[in-house]
Amino acid sequence: MIVEIINKKRLGRALTYSELDFFFKGYLNGEVKDYQMSALLMAICIRGMSDDEIFALTKIFIESGDILDFSDIPGIKVDKHSTGGVGDKTTLVIAPIVASLGVPVVKMSGRGLGYTGGTIDKLESIPGFRVDLTEEEVKKQVKDIGLVVTGQTADLAPMDKVIYALRDVTGTVSSIPLIASSIMSKKIASGADKILIDIKVGKGALLKTKKDANKLSQLMIKIGKFYNREVRTIISDMNVPLGHAIGNSLEVLEAIDILRGKEKKSNLVDLCIELASEMVSMGKEISKDEAVKLVKKSIKNLSAYNKFLEMVEEQGGDIKGIKVNKKVQKIKASKYGTIVAIDALEFGKLSVSLGAGRINKEDSIDYGVGIYLEKMVGQKVRKGDVLARIYSDTKFEASFIENIFIIE
Ligand code: URA
After folding, report:
1. Residue 113: its pLDDT value, please?
2. Binding site membership of 83 for ligand 1 (Cβ less than 6 Å)
3. How many CB atoms lie within 10 A of CB 20?
4. Catalytic, out of 59, 80, 107, 186
5. What are phi and psi of 193, to 5 degrees?
6. How deeply is 332 buried, as exposed, middle or buried, from its count of CB atoms within 10 A (0-12, 13-18, 19+)?
7. pLDDT by residue (tens digit) across 192-228?
8. Active site includes 186?
């Protein structure tokens, strides 16, 4: 049966729900071995999956763990997910904006692995901030202040976790049907009424082409329909890092700057306004244009910032204690020109090598290290201008970092 199922997929035929259920459950209980699951995943990668297979796999993932229920919290709960990017701190900005406009936000985030950071690590750079709330605490806090950002309170789609770990080491991560079921199963299990997905595309992202991003978008919307959840998607650029900061404390400080209206113009600010407006439009059932106005107002009148402070206080944190590394190295331009590119992937890798991210799950991270980009794509620079500041005790060869900035 196991080999027959692998062969069926290898020949490009659709598997039934019971075949998929047998195979994936069998993997969890040890009947299906790593090499057999790897073979099936590779066959899926090459042959693809029908919509019915994708719905079936999503269901199998969802039902492998807990399913959260926030229906006793009034209002439409909108969740947001990003497929992962370098310098992506949008949750820190948009969750308080959306909550300040009366749309309840319960955001369960993860830790970072590899060159994409995790919201939970960023929040932990705020001394005292608790990310291990219980389900009761989550419910109480969202009822009291309308906003909570924490780690997962339950075991959501545990089968996806196991399969993802195998995909990671068998070259099968980039399958669009597998990405769609993996992400959507966790989002549906986490109890949101509506879901916004930020699909990243570019050098620093999982998906490298707009065509693949569009395919993933359509699939996720279809899965949402199947589960009666409104799903909207945004396809956003991940060729250059998002915003100026990469590294946990630096990213929280940048998010605070945006919420305080101090940083008004960057690709990050634009994306935050875009995402927050979609969430508000979904949560309040109003037009996107109306939502954009509300979002901008909530930043201008500091209600989003105050909501952020309320959350930090409620979860035990103190932003006055956020620390960045004392030693800073300035990277200067060696020639005159215009910055035509900043390689997001290279910067992501650099931030991990500084200690801002993890290579292995169990690695500890240094919250204070990171990179702050002084110059962005499109800006003109003169020889000697500071391109970036590196917060680290390790000294870097300026020429290495300079090569990440393409100046023409
Ligand atoms: N993120 C996920 O959670 N799953 C995938 O398959 C890819 C990105």
Report:
1. 65
2. yes
3. 23
4. 186
5. -80, -40
6. middle
7. 999 999 999 998 888 999 999 999 999 999 999 999 9
8. yes
